[in-house]
């Protein structure tokens, strides 16, 4: 009976270690997004993956003023709400 208890404790410790690893991964993925005034900002790569479009199409959306963008330290960012608005406009057209 005592052997089962030590095996159980070792098993639970392994589970807790995995929970700690998952917690760190979730924290690091949440902190990779930049927020300004409560708005999540996405970079080019995030938008390309989200919309599944080419970089040329994204450039066209910027040029046609269909998707507002912001330049911070020479890098382009887009508000998540603006991306959602673009999706809604494309679906309703």
What does this entry look like structurally?
The structure is a single chain. The protein is built from four helices and four strands, in the order αββααββα. The protein has 93 residues and is an alpha+beta fold. The protein has a four-stranded antiparallel sheet. β3 (70-72) and β4 (75-79) form a beta hairpin. The N and C termini lie far apart (69 Å). The mean pLDDT is 87.
For the secondary structure, the number of strands is: 4
Q: State the order of secondary-structure elements, H for helix, E for strand.
A: HEEHHEEH
Mean pLDDT equals 87
Q: Strand order within the widest sheet?
A: 1-2-4-3
Q: What does the oligomeric state look like here? A: single chain
> Sheet with the most strands?
4 strands, antiparallel
Q: What is the secondary structure topology, with strand pairs?
A:
Blueprint: H1 2-31, E1 34-36, E2 39-43, H2 44-51, H3 55-63, E3 70-72, E4 75-79, H4 80-92
Antiparallel strand pairs: 1-2, 2-4, 3-4
In short:
This protein has helices at residues 2-31, 44-51, 55-63, 80-92, and strands at 34-36, 39-43, 70-72, 75-79.
Task: Describe this protein with a few key phrases.
single chain, 93 residues, alpha+beta, four-stranded antiparallel β-sheet, 4 helices, 65% helix
